[in-house]
Design goal:
Chain A: One of its GO terms (molecular function) is oxidoreductase activity. The complex is a heterodimer. Chain A is of the alpha/beta class. Chain A is 37% helix and 20% strand. Chain B has a six-stranded parallel beta sheet with strand order 2-1-3-4-8-7, sandwiched between helices. Chain B has a two-stranded antiparallel ribbon with strand order 5-6. The chains are: A alpha/beta, B alpha/beta.
Chain lengths: 331, 357
């Protein structure tokens, strides 16, 4: 229907508001989610609309925020717990990884934990080593947790709405550098399927697999490459669990080259897992090694120069692709 | 002589007790405690017979009054979480001991189909939101259950049971703070058996008056002597009903862990003299003596009851031994909801990767 101009932040807020209107059991709990309106403004004014018993300001107690959400989800609520920064996830890892992720399994399938843990990560605000990380690998490494990382305004809305219908705990990691991004979106349009990657661009020469903010860098790099005669396919995973490997496989088999781009540190990261899978499953189709373009294996600095330099950008992505394609045999 | 001592103590305790006559809950409390004691003894037997799934079996012998006394005040619809030493609590809430034993044996017929075992047993039907093998791990769930009860106006309370060891975990204080702040129907029950694994409470804190911590957060808080199950039940009644009305509470039950931390622990870190004195603080024997002393039951009636319970619990072992192991393929079940695809087995993936046309 109607296109509207929305920011990523507005879309998230609208997803929460729509879900709360539709389902009276949806409650939000977290630090500064109510009166303050959320550290990044996502829950602004929801408390006015839904009251303090559904938009619950909590003490600074991350483990108990997640733990309370677990108990609430087991007893008939639909909680959305907010972790102000993904960097604080270590504080909550028992409740998240030992409790939320394992309750269905340990208890033999008697009950699930239908909760959403909203948080945000990544670089872009000179927020330093403890407020800028990309820790999705911690989550992806834990069976039982679903993981969504929206890169676009439409996905911010639809993935959050879908997360709030899922029977298992979903960790929903937003990117702090995307909150002000604007897009014209039609929120009434049929959303993409949960667990299905989006092919954001199609090209014959190589596949770039990415997610979250790096999608935009990959698309920018693809435009640069296109000007030099190289056409890339760019896949936005949207959810890392479930992981849509079928889409990756189909495009890698077609192009024979794959690059994985992630803002997280390289070692034992999401890109490592994706690279290993592509290598194992598409080995016979590969012309080149699968190349990981990732964050450096170092903490994030507060200096803008060091911060920007420690994560991939369009230039590195384009340069890497051009080098991969430099020795190709023309079709 | 020991029995005589107990009776004398029981008699003294009864001197000022209100409602000591026909309305007493003591016979039922005794029965619950005796069932717990006997069940735990049979768990030990299952282990000795090599029929338990592992040796991480934590017995609550000596602590029965906490389970019986608190659970006597819970209703249908109430929920609870327990620590890893929680068999007794679950039994006191009405668990089927045969399905419990089968779970402890890792069998398909167990409450969690052999995936949980002693430390992760749960039953949503009875409001058991789960036993926990992480010290303090199950505590914040009752805050969430309290939020649900408030939201849905069910009048239910949610009780977290944990040991003195959990008083060293921050999550307890975070949870009590939230419960007090939001006036949630939550009760925090600390079963202080004096030991977190091998560490005595005196080696773990400078202030062992644990209820003072809860009081500092604004909870109604008491400590009760676990020797006397009626005293536990009375304190729990006050606190549980208070919590139902929006005043969350904390109850420390002082008792003594009669045996080691888990089945293989012979507690070499404890002085035998201390152990002997500790085991004299026996809530089951104390209640039995009180029943006889007050003429509520005769010795032979209680003997008959004990024998009946013995037979009931013997049968749980026979049941468990006869049960089948869970099918191997069930390991991929319940990682995610039933309508979701199961994770691909490693062997299937290897076959796919190495398949050659």
């Amino acid at each position: 229907m109607a296109l509207q101009e929305l920011t990523y932040r507005d879309a998230l807020r609208k997803a929460l508001a729509d879900a709360m209107t539709e389902n009276p059991d949806v409650v939000i709990l977290g630090e500064e989610v109510g009166r303050y309106g959320g550290a990044y403004g996502v829950t602004k004014d929801l408390i006015k609309e839904f009251g303090a018993e559904r938009v619950i300001d909590t003490p600074i107690s991350e483990p108990a925020i997640v733990g309370a959400a677990v108990g609430a989800a087991m007893t008939g609520l639909r909680p959305v717990a907010e972790l102000m920064y993904v960097d604080f996830i270590g504080m909550t890892m028992d409740q998240l990884a030992n409790q939320a992720a394992k309750i269905r399994y340990m208890f033999g399938g008697q009950i699930g934990v239908p909760m959403v843990l909203r948080t945000q990560g990544g670089t872009g605000r000179s927020a330093g080593a403890q407020h800028s990380q990309s820790l999705e690998a911690y989550v992806m490494h834990t069976p039982g947790l679903r993981l969504a990382m929206p890169a676009t305004v439409a996905d911010a809305y639809h993935l959050l709405r879908m997360a709030l219908t899922k029977p298992d705990p979903v960790v929903f990691i937003e990117h702090k550098a995307l909150y002000t991004m604007k897009e014209s979106v039609d929120l009434d349009a049929e959303p993409l399927t949960w667990g299905k990657a989006a092919v954001r661009r199609e090209g014959r020469d190589l596949v770039i697999v990415t997610y979250s903010r790096q999608l935009h860098y990959c698309l920018e790099a693809a435009r640069t490459m296109s000007a030099q005669g190289i056409e890339a396919t760019v896949i936005d995973l949207r959810t890392l669990n479930p992981l849509d490997f079928d889409t990756i496989r189909a495009h890698v088999e077609r192009t024979g080259r794959a690059m994985v781009v992630s803002e997280g540190v390289m070692t034992a990261g999401v890109a490592a897992e994706l690279s290993a899978r592509i290598t194992e499953e598409c080995f016979d189709f590969l012309e080149d090694p699968v190349v990981r373009v990732t964050g450096e294996d170092i903490p994030i600095s507060v200096s803008t120069v060091l911060e920007t330099g420690s994560v991939p950008g369009p230039q590195l992505i384009a340069d890497t692709a051009l080098r991969m394609l430099a020795g190709r045999v023309p079709a | 002589m020991y029995e005589a001592d107990l009776r004398a103590t029981a008699g003294r305790n009864m001197a000022g007790r209100v409602g000591a006559g026909a309305n007493t809950r003591l016979p039922e409390l005794y029965r619950t405690m005796r069932r717990i004691r006997t069940f735990e003894e049979r768990v030990g037997e299952l282990f000795v017979r090599g029929q338990s799934a592992g040796s991480m079996l934590h017995l609550s012998i000596g602590e029965e009054s906490a389970a019986a006394g608190v659970c006597a005040n819970l209703r249908d619809g109430d929920s609870f979480t327990t620590h890893h030493r929680g068999h007794g609590i679950f039994l006191a809430r009405g668990a089927d001991p045969a399905r419990m034993m089968a779970e402890i044996g890792g069998k398909e017929a167990g409450y969690c189909h052999g995936k949980g075992g002693s430390m992760h047993i749960a039953d949503m039907g009875l409001g058991h939101l789960g036993a926990n093998a992480i010290v303090g791990g199950g505590i914040p769930a009752v805050v969430g259950a309290g939020l649900s009860a408030r939201h849905h106006k069910t009048g239910a309370v949610s009780v977290a049971f944990f040991g003195d060891g959990a008083t060293g975990q921050g999550i307890l204080y975070e949870s009590m703070n939230m419960a007090a702040l939001w006036h949630l129907p939550c009760v925090f029950v600390c079963i202080n058996n004096q030991y977190g694994m091998g560490t005595n409470i005196a080696q773990a804190t400078a202030n062992p008056n644990l209820h003072e911590r809860a009081a500092a957060f604004g909870l109604a808080a008491e400590t009760v002597d676990g020797l006397d199950v009626e005293a536990v039940a009375e304190a729990a009644e006050r606190l549980v009903e208070g919590a139902r009305a929006g005043k969350p509470a904390f109850l420390a039950v002082s008792c003594y862990r009669f045996y080691g931390h888990a089945r293989k622990d012979k507690s070499p870190y404890r002085d035998p003299v201390e152990e002997e004195a500790g085991r004299r603080q026996d809530p089951v024997a104390f209640a039995r003596a009180a029943l006889i002393d007050r003429g509520l039951e005769s010795e032979s009636e209680l003997d008959r009851l004990d024998t009946e319970i013995g037979a009931e619990m013997d049968a749980t072992i026979d049941f468990t031994v006869a049960q089948t192991e869970p099918p191997l393929a069930s390991m991929f079940r319940d990682v995610y909801a039933p309508e979701e695809p199961e994770p691909e087995p490693v062997r299937a993936r290897i076959d796919r990767v190495l398949a050659r046309d």
